[in-house]
Design brief:
330 residues; alpha/beta; 9-stranded mixed beta sheet; two-stranded antiparallel ribbon
Length: 330
Amino acid sequence: MARSAMAQETICALRREISRIEGSLPERLASPQAGDSVVLRRGISAVREGCSAFLGTGVPKLDCALAGGVPRAALTEIHSLQTRDAGAATGFTLGLLALLRRADGRSRKQFLICWIGLADVFREAGFPYAPGLEKLFGFAAGGLLFVSTAHIADALWVAEEAARQKDFGAVVLEVRGNPARLDLTATRRLHRRAQELGRPVFLIREAAVAEPTAAPLRFTVSAEPAAPRRSLAGLLQDSIGHPAFTVVIGKSRAARPGRFILEWNPHEQSFREIRPAHSGALVPASGNRPHPPAAMGAVVALRPAGKAPAPGGQPPGKERPAHRRPRRAG
């Protein structure tokens, strides 16, 4: 038993050393001395000094599921399964960008964002509205650079070049569907650019199917009904409150899968977890109850007991017609 624990501790130490040398994605390893698993945070050397390698969302359960938060120096995917959820995916991304600006301690004019999108994306989902971004997320209109391209190859080239510039606090690439050029190689290049300068690159994918990419983290975001507004007198019926999102962790090597319903408060510039409008407390199942009956098998027709079948498949004597009964001789 002691020899097994020592071997496991040696393997954990070797994996930690390999992760430090490789500087690649996070990984969760089991340690014999700790009650829980050990989270190896790899690829964090590119983040500038004084900044955490992970961006906390402000929601304790979500940050715990993400093992610290959203990685800063990495490519992060944000999916919307349908085009009508494009606004929810964009709003969730803007909320993360607002948290990033506050965490970096930059003013509205100092925090610059390069937003690249295809022409069909802006045509279907709409172009970002600068006054609304300033009111809800605190971004200055002069700090947003929007780039519209006709082809995915041009959008990828602009995203890579923007990720190399130190003036941008973040880069956002918005695409629709599953273009062939956005493959594992293209996402690996974007992820590498994010690691080199220590700034995040967000890839928003509208109406897309999940496929292998180099992004260590993927969210699936959809719209959630907003809760009614609150006042000193209580809830205001038939009112529309703050924007709400359903956030599902779809892919992460360092996170546990989970589903969260978040609300964005534009006044406090923060997320908070809410409960669905028509949800209630689940009643726990009572203990010491008998097991449910087993499922019924196939129904088989059985013959009545005590009646043997007549030879040749004929019915018994009493059931034969009278004119077909055998006559007694003599």
